[in-house]
Amino acid sequence: MTAQDSATPTTSIAVSSGTLLAALGVVAFSLTFPSTVWGLESFGPWSLVAVRSVIAALIAGGFLLALRVPLPERRHWAGLVVVAGGVVVGFPLLTTLALQTSTTSHAAVVVGLLPLTTAAFAALRTGRRPSRTFWLAALAGAAVVIVFTVQQSGGALQVGDLYLFGALLVCAAGYNEGGRLARLMPGWQVIGWALMLCLPLGLAGSALALWVEPVRLTAHGAIGLLWVAAGSTFCGLYVWYRGMASIGIARASQLQLAQPLLTLVWSVSLLGERLSAAAPVAAAAVLVCIAVTQRARI
């Protein structure tokens, strides 16, 4: 048996494990929009984002302190700032503002475009060029998701679209830097230190926002806040970054093509939104595109 033959099973296991972790991250993220809608029942948009970042930072800080994790090297801090600005502050704030006027199905458009944008950022950041098959499948999957989600929202552009497109750009940048850093340190430490960077801002923002925006605490509001803080922001990003570090940013990003459809499922079951008969067809088409991107040369 050659060295290459002996390494193949290990490589296959690593890829399978990375794909599973990234997929778990997608499932966690798919609950973000419905949970945000629940959170907005009790909190204003600014207080919801600020308090979620504080809760997530306290969870992360507890792990970092308990395990006595040393501070990251100086060369990693610039990347952590990008992660913090993109996925801890930028994406949550912009999507929360958008969800004040947009339905979850309409907001899912930005998630449908996110895999393609993330892959494009990765190509620019690393200089690697995915194959033509990869890009064709990615574009096809994005097109399916966009057509489906726009059709679900009635085909009309809304005021929150500018927020959503801004969220798309900052999140793609944060995903790429986080995926790169997760190859140099554990994924939970990447999001952990990014959250700690935002803790002073989150504390100040929480104090100001809670003073300005009234709080009407409900069960839905509390559950929504806890999920976006612990589930989406910390646990979701932890497994997501570990998955990206294992299978690559471009390949992992295409798993998110399934996220809008999962979000629509949660929207029906949790928010009572109606789902059209086109959903199974769109789901099947997206899954085919995901399968192609996973096999294409990156």
Number of helical stretches of at least 4 residues: 12
What is the chain-wise order of helices and strands? HHHHHHHHHHHH
Content-based structural category: mainly alpha
What is the strand tally? 0
Largest sheet: none
> Low-confidence parts lasting 5 or more residues at pLDDT below 50?
1-7
Radius of gyration (CA) equals 19 Å
Kindly state the mean pLDDT as a whole number? 85
Strand content: under 5%
The end-to-end span amounts to 28 Å
Helix coverage percent of residues? over 70%
Cα shape? globular
Task: Give a verbal description of the structure.
- Residues 1-7 have low confidence and may be disordered.
- With 298 residues, this protein is an all-alpha fold.
- It has helices spanning 3-30, 32-39, 45-66, 77-98, 104-126, 132-152, 161-181, 187-212, 219-247, 249-254, 259-271, 279-295.
- Helix 1 runs parallel beside helix 11, helix 2 (32-39) packs antiparallel against helix 9 (219-247) and helix 3 runs antiparallel to helix 4 (77-98).
Task: Describe the structure concisely for a colleague.
The protein is mainly α and 298 residues long. Helices cover 79% and strands 0% of the residues.
